[in-house]
Structure formats: C-alpha cells, structure tokens
C-alpha cells in the first residue's frame, strides 16, 4: 500500500544548557532517546527521534547545550549545533523561566536571520508563581525574535507539548518521508548502551568526573536470551579512575548495576554488563579519539 506521507521535515531543538531540550525531545517522541540529568552538558551528540502521523513525518534532533568551547570536544559539540541550525526545516529554540536572554546572545541573533520557521519554547512554566510573569516573558521573547511563535510549556509535565506538535505539523514542508515508518532514531544499540552508562556516571559522580569521562562500547553481542556488553569508561587522570572505581570497587559496582537495570528496561532484554576503566589523558583534545567516539565525522 502506498504511504500517504506528503509532509515531512527536520525539526531541530537548540538552546542553552539545562533548559529542558532533552526532556522535550523525549516527550515529543514518546521514548527516552536522550539521557536527562540535572547537570549541564548532559547531551554531547546530535540525536534524532522520528515521529510519524497518518500523512506526516517529523525528524526531531536533540542537540548539545550552547556554550563557548574550551577544548576540542566542546568544539565538536558546537559543530553539531551549528549543523542543526543549517539543515533545519523548523527550529525549536528552548529557553526557560530562569535564564537570561543575554546568555549566548549571538545564537538568538542567528534565529532572526533564518529563513525557516522558528518556535521559541518557554519551558518550566510550572515553576512560575506570579500570574503576570509569563506574559512578561512571552512579550520579551516576542521582542527578541519577532518572527517566532512563542509557546509556554512544561516539558516535564507534558503541558502544551500537544500544541507544539500541532504547530510543527502545520509548518512542515510538502515533501516525501526521509525514513521508513519503523525507524525511531538514527542511533544504534551500542550508542544507547553507552549513553545509559554515561547517564549513571553523571548521576553518581560530582565535580569534574562526568565531564572527563567518555564511555565506549567495546563489545555488544546479541545472544538469544540476552545482550552481552563490554564497556570502557575513559577518564583523563589516574585519580579519576580511582574515584570511578571507589573503595573495594563499590562505586563502579553501583553504577554498573544501575546501568544494567536501565539497559534491560530500554532494550527489553536481559543484559550482562562488564565495565573497565581506562586512563586516556588527552581524549577531549585528540581529534583521532574524538572521531573514534563519534564526535567528528
């Protein structure tokens, strides 16, 4: 039977760190494709999630939070953002009720130069206590980005996510679907295994540890009843390796148990997970390593 999809497009989600981009993407797609933590720079890659309707297809992209790069890894992360701005059919710019509009202002200026539609999402409106505060915020963003539609939202509570989806559908260009209907994302199982483990590192360790850690899946074997996975956590210094492992290996065991359970929930299959920790002093600055980790094409 011929597919009826005649409207489709790339809808790319950008914004500063910690405004709720990944939470929004997961809510729109209906699956947890992007890991979510309270820490900045949780998202490092561009992650696609695909939504199909009767006659439309939306290819969402979650992107890293906008920042001023300090090393090669962050340069690569901002390349994902810049590419997403360049190839979008629709841009969803996410802000929240806390952040200053002056933060990374150059990206707001870029929105006004785009030819594609722009939607500004004011997230976390459930945190507002004053009745007129939302109206003032909406007015401010309308002044900053006059061409944009302004939509207040709580992505965590899925408040107004249906309105955003309807608005996006109405703005989709007339064109064929880019992906088959049974495709949910552009990432493979190895990627999600590494991201789940990295999420648990973000949740369990503080200070510089999460930002110096990179997870690589060295082995992913699909057996009949389970997935057998070997992962390596790369850190920058020997002292960080000790912190990751913890006294008598207890910290690493805790993280591994949490990651395994989350993987089993995500994959809907039993998982055998083995984790190693390796010191790789310059991985955040080494372009060859960043290419191996998927940050550079």
Structure description:
It is a single chain. The chain is α/β, with parallel strands linked by helices and 297 residues long. 34% of the residues lie in helices and 23% in strands. The protein is built from nine helices and nine strands. The chain has helices spanning 21-29, 72-86, 105-111, 133-144, 161-171, 189-204, 238-245, 250-267, 287-292; strands at 7-15, 47-52, 56-62, 90-96, 118-123, 149-152, 214-222, 226-235, 270-279. The strands form two sheets. The chain has a six-stranded mixed β-sheet, sandwiched between helices. A three-stranded mixed β-sheet has the order 7-8-9. The radius of gyration is 20 Å and the shape is globular. The two termini are 37 Å apart. The mean pLDDT is 95.
Spell out the key features of this protein.
297 residues; alpha/beta; 9 helices; 9 strands
The coarse silhouette is globular
Low-pLDDT stretches? none
Strands, count: 9
Order of strands side by side in the largest beta sheet? 2-3-1-4-5-6
The number of distinct helices, counting runs of at least 4 residues, comes to 9
Beta content? 15-25%
Give the SSE string: EHEEHEHEHEHHEEHHEH
What structural class is derived from the secondary structure elements? Answer: alpha/beta
Report the radius of gyration as a whole number of Å.
20 Å
| Largest sheet data | 6 strands, mixed
The level of helicity is 25-40%
Nearest-integer average pLDDT: 95
Task: Characterize the quaternary organization of these chains.
Answer: single chain
Alpha-carbon distance between the termini? Answer: 37 Å
């Amino acid at each position: 039977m011929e597919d009826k999809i005649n409207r489709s497009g790339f809808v790319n989600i950008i914004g500063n760190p910690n405004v709720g981009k990944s939470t929004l993407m997961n809510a729109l797609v209906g699956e947890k494709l992007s890991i979510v933590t309270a820490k900045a720079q949780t998202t490092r890659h561009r992650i696609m999630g695909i939504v199909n309707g009767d006659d439309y297809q939306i290819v969402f992209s979650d992107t890293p939070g906008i920042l001023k790069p300090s090393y090669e890894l962050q340069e690569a992360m901002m390349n994902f953002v810049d590419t997403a701005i360049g190839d979008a059919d629709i841009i969803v710019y996410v802000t929240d009720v806390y952040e200053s509009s002056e933060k990374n202002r150059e990206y707001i200026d870029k929105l006004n130069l785009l030819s594609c539609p722009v939607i500004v999402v004011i997230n976390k409106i459930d945190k507002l206590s004053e009745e007129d505060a939302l109206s003032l915020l909406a007015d401010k963003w309308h002044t900053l980005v006059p061409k944009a539609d302004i939509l207040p939202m709580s992505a965590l509570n899925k408040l107004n996510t249906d309105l955003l989806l309807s608005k996006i559908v109405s703005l989709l260009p007339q064109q064929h679907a880019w992906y088959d209907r049974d495709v949910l994302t552009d990432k493979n199982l190895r990627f999600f295994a590494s991201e789940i483990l990295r999420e648990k590192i973000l949740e369990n360790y503080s200070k510089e540890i999460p930002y110096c850690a990179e997870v690589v899946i060295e082995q992913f074997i699909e057996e009949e009843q389970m997935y057998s996975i070997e992962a390596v956590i790369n850190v920058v210094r020997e002292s960080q390796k000790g912190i990751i492992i913890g006294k008598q290996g207890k910290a690493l065991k805790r993280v591994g148990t949490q990651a395994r359970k989350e993987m089993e929930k995500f994959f809907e299959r039993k998982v055998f997970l083995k984790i190693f920790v390796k010191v790789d002093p310059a991985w955040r600055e080494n372009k060859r390593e960043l290419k191996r980790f998927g940050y550079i094409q």
